Amino acid sequence: MFLGIGLKLVSTLAFTFMAAAVKLIGFAHPGEPLYYPVGQTVFCRSLFALIPVFIWLGWRGDLRRAFATSSLANHARRGFFGSIGMFSGFTALILLPLADATAISYAAPLFTVVLAAVILKETVRVYRWSAVAVGFLGVLVMLYPYFDATAPHTQMRMIGAGFGMLGAIAAGFATIETRKLTQTETTGAIVSYFMLLTTLIGLATLLLGWFNPFFAWRWPSQNDAILLVLMGIMGGIGQITLTQSFRYADASLIAPFDYVSMIWAIIVGWFLFGELPQSIIMIGASIVVAAGIYVIWRERQLGLDRRRQKESGPNRAI
């Protein structure tokens, strides 16, 4: 149990370092174009993440099965939504303070509940719907500062907040597709196909630079190249430790520790970028976190109830 929690905490730290690298690589001053386009950043993040992923699969003896699949269409859908989430999330990271972008991403589990009810036809009763409604209220609180016309660089921050919300919605869709895949696919295949697809989609943006200089890739300096590689490796390590954490502890137990990423984001954001989140952002984030934890707790209770019913069924027959 403690190993699972520890791995989950390592994953949040790895993803925070990855996010900080994304911001450093693509950091834009107000009114200036991005230093490295998001497509190039997505490509490098996905490509170099394959290094630790393949090492991990090789160590487990699963490398030969990394691309064995019976659901290529589902992998494509998961990759499509995951790519939208990655592009949008990276744009939000570049345009917003690190802690703000992290806080907005916490809306993803709320969208997952809604989409699970609509797409998977899962039964969602009044308690979870109430938690989702409260969570979305927290999202509105977080977004409120970005509609203040008197604030500096309002347009840029509004765009960043919009991409952050789009990333959260896409992450909700990606989670639904991942739930479907886990019924037939190995974890290695799910991770490998996602990294491969996002690598190819990121590479395809290279063509956009021929038509619009805004999307043109840059040849990185030596220091930037190192940062791009480390960004991908951190993403791969985060993916591995997140996946492994579920082997040693129940998902309902370790899921709330995902919100520790806010602590890392505040520390790293202050240390690297001199950023501190506004109090209203923290209030909204606290509401969303509380709603998310309640949803996780409710999911755990329902899972325990279903398990008891399954175990007591034969006994009643006897």
Please sum up the structure shown.
With 318 residues, the protein is mainly α. 75% of the residues lie in helices and 0% in strands.
Textual characterization of the structure:
The protein has 318 residues and is mostly helical. It is built from 12 helices and no strands. The chain has helices at 2-26, 38-60, 72-95, 98-105, 108-118, 126-143, 154-181, 187-204, 222-248, 251-254, 261-273, 279-317.
Keywords:
single chain; 318 residues; mainly alpha; 12 helices
Give the overall shape. globular
Q: Find the count of extended strands (DSSP E, 2+ residues).
A: 0
Compute the separation of the termini in Å: 35 Å
Helix content: over 70%
Indicate the structural class: mainly alpha
H-E string: HHHHHHHHHHHH
The overall pLDDT average reads 85
**How many H/I helical runs?**
12
- State the major sheet: none
Rounded radius of gyration (Å):
20 Å
Uncertain residue segments: 29-33
Strand content: under 5%
Helices and strands in order:
Layout lengths: L1 H25 L11 H23 L11 H24 L2 H8 L2 H11 L7 H18 L10 H28 L5 H18 L17 H27 L2 H4 L6 H13 L5 H39 L1
